[in-house]
Amino acid sequence: MDNKEIVELLFRRDERAVEELRQKYEGLCLRIAGNLLAQKEDAEECVSSAWFEVWNSIPPARPEDLRTYLCRIVRNIAINRLKYNTAEKRSPALAVSLEELADCVPAAVESDRLLAETISLFLRNQDEAHRRVFIRRYWYGDTVEMIAESCRMNSRTVATYLFRTRNRLREYLKKEGYNYD
């Protein structure tokens, strides 16, 4: 079943939609949550919460890209769970990837949405390999080693891709008027 059909089932309040989501995206969702959370049970609970949130948000929302919509929900739920679990402690896995981005994304912005759109536009203009590596690291939370294995690259190559893409992103954001003071 394709994503448009699943969204239509959700609009009709047909419970089969949740089962279709589970069949199609459970592995991806568990990977996203699992990359952020240490406990398998926490990741599974986040994914279950995501099904519930999708059920409650569609309708009225009608996402154009159901996969991205679902991944964003899972990621946000997992980050919230991580914050709750660590309560002022830093999670090494998430902390490392966020610290990598700290120098290229301005701390204070007027609109998070506008910044996200600007970063998205930047990524669309990158070659596929750099974009894939960047998204796997900073959206899905994959380690450099995981990315290297799945993309059949050397870990140093992945690290170099990330370093260069972060530098290009910083320069791009400066040109777009973002302040780094």
Q: From the 3D structure, determine the CATH topology of the largest domain.
A: Rna Polymerase Sigma Factor, Chain: A
Tally the beta strands. Answer: 0
CATH class of the largest domain: Mainly Alpha
Helix content: over 70%
Largest sheet descriptor: none
Spell the H/E element sequence: HHHHHHHHH
Class derived from helix and strand content: mainly alpha
By DSSP (H or I, 4+ residues per run), the number of helices equals 9
Number of domains: 2
Taking all Cα atoms into account, the compactness measure Rg is 18 Å
**At the fourth CATH level, what is the homologous superfamily of the largest domain?**
RNA polymerase sigma factor, region 2, helix turn helix motif
In quaternary terms, these chains amount to: single chain
Folded structure, characterized:
The structure is a single chain. By secondary structure, this protein is mainly alpha-helical. The protein has two domains: 3-88, RNA polymerase sigma factor, region 2, helix turn helix motif (Rna Polymerase Sigma Factor, Chain: A); 93-175, Arc Repressor Mutant, subunit A (Orthogonal Bundle), CATH 1.10.10. Helices cover 73% and strands 0% of the residues. The chain contains nine helices and no strands. It has helices spanning 3-11, 16-36, 40-57, 66-86, 92-102, 112-124, 128-138, 144-151, 155-175. α2 packs across α3 (40-57) and α7 (128-138) packs across α9. The longest helix has 21 residues, at 16-36. It is globular. The chain starts with a helix and ends in a 6-residue tail after the last helix. 23% of the residues are buried.
